[in-house]
Each structure stands twice: as structure tokens, then as C-alpha cells.
From TrEMBL:
Pfam families registered for this protein in UniProt: adh_short_C2
Lineage: Bacteria, Pseudomonadati, Bacteroidota, Chitinophagia, Chitinophagales
Species, as recorded: Panacibacter ginsenosidivorans
The protein's name: SDR family oxidoreductase
Family: Belongs to the short-chain dehydrogenases/reductases (SDR) family.
InterPro entries: NAD(P)-bd_dom_sf, Sc_DH/Rdtase_CS, SDR_fam
Top-level taxon: Bacteria
A GO molecular function held by the record: oxidoreductase activity, acting on the CH-OH group of donors, NAD or NADP as acceptor
């Protein structure tokens, strides 16, 4: 850990792979001290090696909500401040509606929504002391329109959009901007798992995406870097689709 007053400090949850890693890599390359958080220390270490010297790791199971205040205390102790929080960590489950158990639903809710609230609350406490900050939530196309067989995931991502707007309204007067990014279909392991086993869904994805191809994780990284920068200093409370037009495609 290091405390370089000349560099901003960012936390990216789920930063060990996929979209989270792409965001963390963009931040680190932009000279932002970037802490990636996740459960798998081996995956985090591998990501750190790829992202370079501005990347740091902290292992934490965010579904265990009691660990979150300690995590944030450790970040502040090691880095002195938190300028940016990216709430990217999330899990999905593809099941028929009637097969989803209460435990299944609660598991997705805890990781995708409750942990986002809990870590945001703890980070905001520090941002208020500093006099400002920036929070970026990762939403989904599942909050833009109805997707079958992902009821719990859809519920959490729709809630993330509402929480983003509510947080922005309350916190922006205090110098904390809050926005969300709604990725379209991006080339990640999670997307491949969902689409490769369902050719019909995969065909539908491409048919309703006007640009005709899937995005790259770096596309989300670029959007996050923009929203975290002074170039977006008058932007708060938005949900930005980065989706090749998928959300407006026919």
C-alpha cells in the first residue's frame, strides 16, 4: 500500500477479471492508484501483475456484509482517501422462474445489491470527510428491458438504477457524483457462458444490436474512466448504456 497525495485512489469491486479488470486497468494506466477487490486472491494477483504498479489488491467476500466496514477502514488506513468507487462485483443465475428458491434469490440480492449499498455507505462516510468523490455503479441490459430466466439478477440491476438516481440526488449537493453504466453484451466469460449454451438468445442479441457486434470490456473501461474524470464533472444520476445500440434496437 502507498499514500501518494498526487494520485487519486479508486476501488473497483470484482476487479480481478472481465469488465472489472478492464476498468481497473484503464484507471491504473491513467495514474490512479487502483485497489481491486474480490474473493479469489490468485485471480487478483494475476490481475495486479497485468495492470502494473498502480494496481493493488484486497481480498474480501463482499457477500459477507460484516467484512465491508473493515475493508474500507483498511483502504483509508493504507491510502489516506478514496476518490472513486466502482461497484462492479456481481453474480448471475439462469433458472426458470418457478425453480428459483428463496435462497437463490437472496444470494443474488446480497451480492448484487446489498453489498453495493453497504460498501457505498462506508465509502461515502469517507468521501464526506474529504468533501467529494465519485461513485460508478454497474447496471445491465436486464434493467433496460425484460430478459427471461434471470429474475433475481434483473431485480437487482433494476434496483441499482433506482439507487443510483436516489444517491445522486442526495449526495451530489455534497460533492459526490453518482452514475451508472449499463453494459450491453460484452465479450466476457460470464456472457459466453450465458450465450454459448443458448443459440436462440445469442442470435437475438446480434439481431437487435444495431452495431452488429459485441463490445469489449475496454469499452466499459473507457466509459468508467470518462465518468470518473473532470470531463464529466457536470454529469450525475445517469444510467449510461454502452451497448452498441442494443437497448434501442428492434
Amino acid at each position: 500500500m502507498m499514500n501518494d497525495q498526487n494520485k487519486k485512489v479508486a476501488i473497483v469491486t470484482g476487479g480481478g477479471s472481465g469488465i472489472g479488470f478492464a476498468i481497473a486497468e484503464k484507471f491504473a494506466n491513467a495514474n490512479i492508484q487502483t485497489i481491486i477487490v474480490g474473493r479469489d486472491e490468485k485471480k487478483l494477483q494475476s490481475a495486479k501483475e497485468k495492470a502494473g504498479p498502480n494496481c493493488f489488491i484486497m481480498q474480501c467476500d463482499l457477500s459477507n456484509l460484516t467484512e465491508i466496514p473493515v475493508l474500507i477502514e483498511n483502504v483509508v488506513a493504507g491510502f489516506g482517501r478514496i476518490d472513486i468507487l466502482v461497484n462492479n462485483a456481481g453474480i448471475n443465475m439462469k433458472k426458470d422462474f418457478t425453480e428459483v428458491t428463496d435462497a437463490d434469490f437472496q444470494s443474488i440480492l446480497t451480492t448484487n445489491l446489498c453489498s453495493v449499498f453497504a460498501i457505498s455507505r462506508e465509502v461515502v462516510k469517507q468521501m464526506l470527510i474529504q468533501g467529494g468523490g465519485n461513485i460508478i455503479n454497474i447496471s445491465s441490459m436486464a434493467a433496460q428491458y425484460g430478459l427471461p430466466k434471470v429474475i433475481a439478477y434483473s431485480a437487482t440491476k433494476t434496483a441499482i438504477d433506482g439507487m443510483t438516481r436516489a444517491m445522486a440526488t442526495e449526495l451530489s449537493p455534497k460533492g459526490i457524483r453518482v452514475n451508472a453504466i449499463a453494459p450491453g453484451f460484452i465479450k466476457t466469460d460470464m456472457t459466453a457462458k450465458a450465450l454459448d449454451s443458448d443459440p436462440e438468445r445469442k442470435s437475438k442479441v446480434f439481431s437487435r444490436t444495431p452495431m452488429g457486434y459485441m463490445g469489449e470490456p475496454a469499452d466499459i473501461g473507457d466509459a468508467a474512466l470518462f465518468l470518473a474524470s473532470d470531463a464529466a464533472k457536470y454529469i450525475t444520476g445517469i444510467v449510461l448504456p454502452v451497448d452498441g445500440g442494443n437497448s434501442i434496437g428492434f
